[in-house]
Amino acid sequence: MTVAPAPARGPSVAALALARTGVELKAFFRNRELAFFTFLLPLLLLVVLSATFEGVIVGPPGTPLVTYRQYFVAGMIATSIFSSAFVALATGVAIEQHDGLLKRLSGTPLPRASYLAGKIASVTAVAALSSALMVAIGVAFYDLRVPTDPRRLLVLAGLFALGVTACSLLGLACTRLIRNAKAGAAVVQPPFLVLLFVSGVFYVFDRVPEPLQRLGALFPVKWLAQGLRYVFLPDWFSAQEAAGRWELANVAVVLVAWTVVGFALTLRFFRWDRSGEG
User: Fold this and answer.
1) d(CA 183, CA 95)
2) Closest among 192, 154, 190 to 170, alpha carbons compared
3) Are 53 and 68 in contact (CB under 8 A)?
4) For an engineered disulfide with 162, which of 27, 126, 207, 255 has Cβ 3.0 to 4.6 Å away?
5) In angstroms, how far is the first alpha carbon of the chain from the final one?
6) pLDDT < 70 stretches in the chain
7) How many CA atoms are closer than 13 Å to the CA of 96, on its beta-carbon side?
8) pLDDT at residue 207, rounded to an integer
9) Distance between CA atoms of 3 and 5, rounded to whole angstroms?
10) What digits encode the pLDDT tens for the residues 9-33?
């Protein structure tokens, strides 16, 4: 009696996701517009704001001064994460939807889980690179100090993971609003810029008008920026926050909540095939 050979196993979901990550990264760096908004826009904002606002924020006697430049660097790191995970992802996926790429991929052995994992992994890598660039520029030119306290480094890792996840899921859900492949920038950039203004990225948050403070507090960018200020700025600066403290528990709760909301919205609104729409 002959025994039939066992069927060959194909690559695992994880291996396919890793391969897809490489494809996504190549596609990202070939798209000049996405690369500009992800890397150069936060950098240009940092340079312009730092040249415009050259003052210092004074704390209690004996505490180190905080320059506006240091404040802006923390906000621009949040901007880099938001830009990578929301703007770049939503725009890129929308193009693939309307051009029919996702429909064609659905007819291949590539599991959808591998596609999404590869997409989010590539976004995470780009966000990490963009954030590292902001930190390097802040250290080199704007007197930013990289923390050595393990607690702050742990908070930084948690903020990055939650921020990328929440903003990525919101980016996937937002593709439902993009009616054609060319409309991506017009749909995602206005909310991107508005949220930066109302989230204390460009101004010390307690100086933002109160109605706009309340608006900004509804969204994750404000909390991501606030958590990053805890990581990079002195302890006394918590008095400059709207509540007069860092509110790290609230930061975590809001980012986790938006991760859950983003997941639910993605399940509800994300479509694999929209090539026949709009």
Assistant:
1) 9
2) 192
3) yes
4) 255
5) 60
6) 1-10, 34, 273-278
7) 23
8) 77
9) 6
10) 667 878 888 888 888 888 888 877 7
CA distances 167 to 76, 126, 210, Å, are 15, 13, 25
Q: What pTM was estimated for this model as a whole?
A: 0.87
For 39, other C-beta atoms within 10 Å of its C-beta total 20
Q: From CA 93, how far away is CA 233, in angstroms rounded?
A: 36
- Cβ pair 143, 70 in contact under 8 A: yes
Over the stretch 31-87, which tens digit does the pLDDT of each residue have?
A: 777 677 778 878 888 888 777 777 888 888 888 888 888 888 888 889 889 988 888
Neighbours of 48 (CB within 10 A): 11
Cα dist from 227 to 23, 249, 261, 269, 273, whole Å: 32, 10, 20, 30, 37
What residue spans define the domains of the chain?
13-269
Closest C-alpha among 205, 161, 196 to residue 87: 196
Q: How far apart are CA 174 and CA 93, in angstroms?
A: 10
CB 138 within 8 A of CB 70: yes
Helices 248-269 & 150-174 angle (0-180, nearest 10): 20
Residue 146 tokens, joined: 């990289």
Note whether 252 and 74 are within 8 A (CB): no
